[in-house]
Amino acid sequence: MAMTTIERVIALQKVPLFADTPGRILAAVARRAAEVEVGAGERVIEEGAVESHLFALVRGRLRVQRGETTIATLEPGASVGELAALVPEPRSASVTALERSTLLRIEKDVLDELLRDWPELASGVIGALVAMLRRRAGDAEGGTGA
User: Fold this and answer.
1) 4-18, 20-34, 56-70, range with the lowest pLDDT
2) Residue 91 to residues 1, 12, 20, 37, 45, Cα–Cα distance (Å)
3) What is the pLDDT of residues 83-104, one digit of tens each?
């Protein structure tokens, strides 16, 4: 059954990328997001593909992998593909559903329009991306970031 706008807003509030975004703006994001259902073992993102959208994980679990190496396991509230939604470049990893999962897909043009129309969304997105990049840099240096 399809999610309501309210259910989508609640799901997006759990995503660090959108956590500080006002509800009225999240409602606009929620209305424009596409609901995607994937089964266990289904590929969500293919390493090397050039795409321009991000996903917010609502239900299920995802495996992020580079080659055969698992980089992370994502739980509800996680997002994946954030950088590609801002600057489309080849995906740096593949993402596969570990179990039946529900995601919200947000296209670059939707994100661009929302960022243009609501500058307050931009500060939240930038802050979340900086935190994510710092965490990844810590991981690469042997840190313990998630």
Assistant:
1) 20-34
2) 30, 22, 26, 21, 8
3) 777 788 888 899 999 999 999 9
Amino acid at residue number 90: P
Tell me if the domain spanning 5-110 has CATH number 2.60.120.10: yes
Q: Which tokens belong to 51? A: 């795409």
SS (H, E, C) the chain: CCCCHHHHHHHHHCCCCCCCCCHHHHHHHHHHCEEEEECCCCEEECCCCECCEEEEEEECCEEEEECCEEEEEECCCCEECHHHHHCCCECCCEEEECCCEEEEEEEHHHHHHHHHHCHHHHHHHHHHHHHHHHHHHHHHCCCCCC
Q: What is the mean pLDDT of residues 107-125?
A: 80
pLDDT tier at 139 (50, 70, 90 boundaries)? low
Identify the CA nearest to 54 among candidates 18, 24, 85.
85
